[in-house]
Amino acid sequence: MLNIILGLLFAALGIVFVVTWFSDFLIVLKGSLPACVALGGLLAIFIGVSTVKENIREKQGKKEEETKKTTEEK
């Protein structure tokens, strides 16, 4: 119950502060938005490279299993 009351209090204070200092809020938002976009892009690149490496490893593992099966059948 205390968490709900504190959450409502902080949400109300946050709204009051944003309305009171809206111009300052916009300045901070303008300054932080390019950094957030750049970091998001770097994260996307990292995840993409990781996925490609994982796919390559899976393909190599499947090829090795196929070669083992063919050699065992002979």
Average pLDDT figure: 90
- Low-pLDDT residue spans: none
Q: How many strands appear in the DSSP assignment?
A: 0
Give the overall silhouette: elongated
Strand content: under 5%
Count of helices? 2
What proportion of the residues is helical, as a percent range?
over 70%
> First CA to last CA: what distance?
71 Å
SSE sequence, one letter per element:
HH
Descriptive key words:
74 residues; single chain; 0% strand; 2 helices; mainly alpha
Task: Record the SSE blueprint.
Elements: H1 2-20, H2 22-73
Describe the protein.
The mean pLDDT is 90. The protein has helices at residues 2-20, 22-73. 96% of the residues lie in helices and 0% in strands. The protein has two helices and no strands. By secondary structure, it is an all-alpha fold.
Short account of what is shown:
By secondary structure, this protein is mainly alpha-helical. Helix content is 96%, strand content 0%.
